[in-house]
Structure formats: C-alpha cells, structure tokens
Amino acid sequence: MSILIDDKTRVIVQGITGRDGSFHTEQMLEYGTKVTAGVTPGKGGKKVGTTPVFNSVEEAVNETGAECSVLFVPAKYAASAIREAAIGGIKLIVCITEGIPVQEMLELYHALKRKNIRLIGPNCPGVISPGKSKVGIMPGHIHKPGGVGVISRSGTLTYEVVYSLTEKNLGQSTCIGIGGDPIVGTGYIELLEMFENDPDTESIALIGEIGGTAEERAAEFIKKTVQKKVVAFISGRTAPP
Amino acid sequence: MTIKIYEYQARELFKEYRIPVPSAILSDTPDNVFQAFDSFKEKVLLKGQVLTGGRGKAGIIQIANSPEEAKSKAKKLLGMSVKGFSVKSILVTEFINIQSEYYLSVTIDRDSSEIILIVSKAGGMDIEEIAETKPELIKKITLFGVKGEINEKELIECLSELFEKEIIEQAKVIVQNIYKLFREKDCSLVEINPLARVEDKLIAADAKIVFDDNGIFKHPELLEFQNPEEYTNDELQAREAGLSFVSLEGEIGCMVNGAGLAMATMDCIKLEGASPANFLDVGGSSNPEKVINAMRILLANKNLKAILINIFGGITRCDDIAKGIMQARDKLGITLPVVIRLIGTNEEAGRKMLNDAGIKALRSMPEAIKEVVSIVAGGR
Predict the structure, then answer these.
(1) Shared-domain flag, residues A111 and A132
(2) How many structural domains comprise chain A?
(3) Which residue among A120, A139, A169 closes a domain?
(4) Within the 202-221 window of chain A, which residues sit less than 8 Å (CB to CB) from chain B?
C-alpha cells in the first residue's frame, strides 16, 4: 500500500504540450505511471509521443476514466485549469505550477474542500509512490520502495532527503511535496493522518521550512495523535531575517 | 517580482479607495519642508519615508512647531537611516489631535486559509508585541472563508464590540474599502496603524500595503510604484534575470536550485565553519542563460573566494545546467575555484558534458561542501 497514488492510478496531464509538460509526461511513463491522456485547449486530436491530447479535462476523463490530474499550466491560467479539473470529475489534482496569485488559490482552496476534491500543491514537485507511480517532476531513480513516508514543504530538499534515505537502504512508501506557497491544497496534518493509517508506512520523515506556523501545528498533532516514529528537519538556521 | 512601497504611495491607494487620510505634502529637501509647513496650521508631523517598519522607535517621526524647526529637523532626518534604508524624503503631515487609536489590518491567515480582519483597540503600538503580551486585545474576524464573504450585518456585529456607536458606520465603510483594495490589487497585507479617532471622525494616520508577488502580473498599474532603491545592485540584477537572490557577508558564493536546498546548503557551510556570501535560488526549469546570469551576479562580489554550485535536478535538468556552466566558463573567464555538485534529472547527460570538458562534478552534497570549505580555509 501507499497513500494518494498507486500502480492503478490513471493520470492525465494538463498543459501536456509545453516544454515541461511533454518532457515530464515521458519521464512519468518511463517510470511506469499510467498516463492516459493530456489536455491542452486547442490541441485536441494531436499526440505527445503515444499519449492522446484532448481539448478539455471532461473529454479526457470521459475517454480514459482518469481520476488524477497533474498540471504544468502557466501561472496565469493555472487557477482556471484547476477549476476545470474539479468540474471535469478529477478527484486528485497535483499542481506543479509556481507563481499562482495567493488570493486565487484561497478561493479555490475553499471551493475544492466543499467538493471534497484533493489538491496537492501548487508550487510543488508532486507525489511519488516508489515502484508504483510518479505524478510529478521528481527524479524517479533516486527513490526506492519501502516503509518511510515523506512529507515536505520544499522541492529539491526533498530529493536530497530521499536520496540519503535510499543510500542508507531506507525505501519510501509515498513522498509528497506539499508546496511552498502560503495557501496549499493539502497540509502536513492531513498527510500525517493518512500515513498513520497506512499499514505499509512504518515511519515518517517531515521536511519543513522557515516562515508560518504549519510546522508548529504539525508538531502538536504528532504529539497528540501519531504513533509512528516521525523525524523532522527544518532548514534555514542561517537565513537572514 | 516584488514591489515594496512607501507610506506616501500607500496613501495614494488609500485615497483612491476613499479611505480618509490626513493631508500631507511630500518633500525631499529641508527647504521644501520649510515651505510645506505654510500649508498647515501651527504644528506638523515630519515622517521620514523608508521601506521598513519601526519608524517611531527609530526616531524618524518627529513633531515640528515652526517652519524653522521643521527645516532643521528635516536636515537631520534626511541623513538618517533605518535598518540600512536611508531617509530620502519626508512626508510633512497635518498634526491631528488623536483621542483614541485603533489597529486595523486585512491579511491572509495561513492556518485557516482565510482572509481575515485584525482589529485592536491598542493602536499605535507594535501589533506583534501585543499579540505576544496581551492577545486578548486583538480580535480576528473572517472576511472570506469557507462560507464565502462576510455579510454586512455580521461585520457590523463584530465591529460593535470595538467601536463606539457613533463611529461604527465609518469603521464599517473603512473595512469594506480596505477589503476591496486588498482584493482588487492582490495584496497580502493592508494595514492601518494607527486608525485615529479625531472627534467624531476616523482617519488612517498611517498606511502600509504589501503586495502578493504572484499577483503583480495582473496589475501593470502598480509598476509605477516600483522603487529601485529597495534592492542592492546585485539584487536588482538578479531580479531582472528572474533569480531569487539575497547578498550576505561570507566568502562562498552559492548557486542552488530551490529555496529549501539553498537554505540547507547555507546551513551546512556554516556548520563546516565557513560563511555563505549569498542566497541564490536559480529556480526550476533553469535554462543555460539563467546559470550564466547567476554566475555573473556571483562574480560581481569582490569578497568571493570560491563558488559552490549545488543542483538537485527535478524540473531543472542537469544537462541544461551543465550547458550553462560551460558557457559561463567560456564567456566570463572564471578564475575562482568552483565546486560543482550535480545530480537528478538528466544527470548522466549533464555529468558527461562536464567530464568531456574537463570539469569535475560531484554527486554528494556533504562532499561538495567539505571541498569548497577546505578551499576557502586553505586560502586564509
């Protein structure tokens, strides 16, 4: 088991025809992710590699039955693309895009909560369940299947931690980058809860950043609720004020 | 992109949104301050303009009772600086007889993902200090949350706990207008401290606005507020190149992808006994051009003894970085020692390019940090 995604998760890529979208679609497919379709308005009918492109999320979902979407849409259009995914029937949205206006995210945050749709990110590396599926931009080869659940606010620092874990022969159940923006779809606490309930996760690594109080609240939650072992790290001791 | 603005600029936006402010004249020489005094009665407030808070404590807000006094005080103020920001202009402001002071701000509460109004009767003081010492004096009201926007009736109810009956309508209108400004200009903070009661009127005696960096592209009209002096020269160059950069005191220039890894890199350099010269995040999706620009900015620092490039590729591809490093070497003629750590997406391609060019690239971050620190230590 793992959380959020596994080898059965069917994924569509919004913004598949862009430089990053097409490159990472290929990388995800290579890793074994079931990428079933892509969406770029106006480019329906084309293909990226072997992946069919549709004009809308609704079409892509109808054709392929995907339940997860990953976004490589530019910041200007990202909020409306997330909205389109939600309306189109996607249950798990992973938004890689950085630079989305905070107030647009704030409105989306509440709209998605009301509809019970899960958003990871924005401004994040995505989610990977090693050996099963990779929905995001992290380098797949540094991961290894195993029992450590990884939750992180940082992007590249997560890779650093995962790389060290793998070197020490500690595999991972699922690794999630929650994103570095002031408003993110899913926070530490919800994921800690999921890992606590996931039988295949034995311990949890949490990587925080300076700014805000999310880490403090996670610490309180861990103390009260989490039985599994949690190791946390926050960078920025030497950061200027 | 970031835009920081002065009080006098925030006041302009307040006026646009019909938030009452005292009358004032912006002056940048002691003579102009002398002349400005004429427009007021017998007393003015001289408010030094800087892009940072704590102006009262720093002594750059002063009272003057005559044009002569205003001029001589202005002379002193214009030479002062607060937290590295020098006073370049003075807002000569009408002196108002304040009966009571409130604190009022609209901001985003990260814990609840809501837009909130923060109100306190303890205006004029440092709000963070009050939050620590007397949290009961601060009231938080959700303006936009799970249920959408607050309605007028609920807002009046909340405000009636803090404002006297005769000014509650004014308080409500001010809150509505600040909220409107906050939403329409994509702000992350709009603050009035103090909101002053003068007889039966509420006046914003100070104005502070912070914009959401991510929202600025929607507001070309805000570009006229840009103040180039808010950045050091290399910070300005970095901004133009789309890099996130902060200069520091140390001797090791750092080029890292991702803010978290960049901070961890700085932390590790410190732990090894050396000091980073800067924070530099080349960001995701780095094209080779970004690496060259980053290198150019690093090399402009004359205190530099060595450079550490620490890249863990995700959306950033190691071959793009390698291309950038090679082009930078050819274009910029780097004589300083450079330690490179390159790993992640397209790592094989990137390392091969560097190896073929005779450039060493490490895989381990601790190893790279030890190496760059030993180079700097050896040169001491």
Answers:
(1) no
(2) 2
(3) A120
(4) 207, 209-210, 212-214, 217
Contact flag A207-B218 (C-beta cutoff 8 Å): no
Residue B245: pLDDT band (50, 70, 90) is confident
A5 falls within a domain: no
Does a structural domain hold residue A4? no
Q: Would you say residue B349 has pLDDT above 80?
A: yes
- Note whether A106 contacts B217, CB cutoff 8 Å: no
Q: What residues make up the domain containing A188?
A: 126-234
Q: How far apart are CA A156 and CA A163, in angstroms?
A: 11
User: Least CB-CB distance to A159: which of B212, B246, B314?
Assistant: B314
- pLDDT of B11 above 80: yes
Structural tokens at position B45: 């407030």
Helices (H) and strands (E) in chain A, counts: 7, 13
A16 and A116 in a single domain? The answer is yes
Each residue's pLDDT tens digit, B76-116: 999 898 887 889 999 999 999 999 999 999 999 998 999 99
Q: Which of A120, A155, A172 is the last residue of a domain?
A: A120
Burial B61-80 (b: 16+ CB within 10 A, else e): bbebeebebbbebbeebbee
A147: which 2 tokens? 């029992």
Tell me the shortest Cα–Cα distance from B227 to chain A, in angstroms. Answer: 21
| Domain contains A2 | no
Amino acid at B166: E
Is some CB atom of chain A closer than 8 A to the CB atom of B218?
Answer: yes
Confidence label for A81 from pLDDT (cuts 50, 70 and 90): very high
Whole-structure pTM value = 0.90
| DSSP 3-state of B379 | coil
Q: What percent of chain A has pLDDT over 70?
A: 100
A199 touches chain B (CB under 8 A): no
B17 is catalytic: no
Indicate yes or no: CB of B261 within 8 angstroms of CB of A153. Answer: no
Domains of chain B and any CATH numbers: 23-94 (3.30.1490.20), 100-224 (3.30.470.20), 231-378 (3.40.50.261)
Q: Is residue A88, in this structure, part of any structural domain at all?
A: yes
Is the minimum CB–CB distance between B145 and chain A shorter than 8 Å? yes
Residues A23 and A89 in one domain: yes
Q: Per-residue pLDDT for B380 more than 60?
A: no
Calculate mean pLDDT across residues B181-194. 97
**Predicted pLDDT of residue B379:** 65
Backbone angles phi, psi at B333, to 5 degrees: 55, 65
Return the CATH number at A73.
Answer: 3.40.50.720
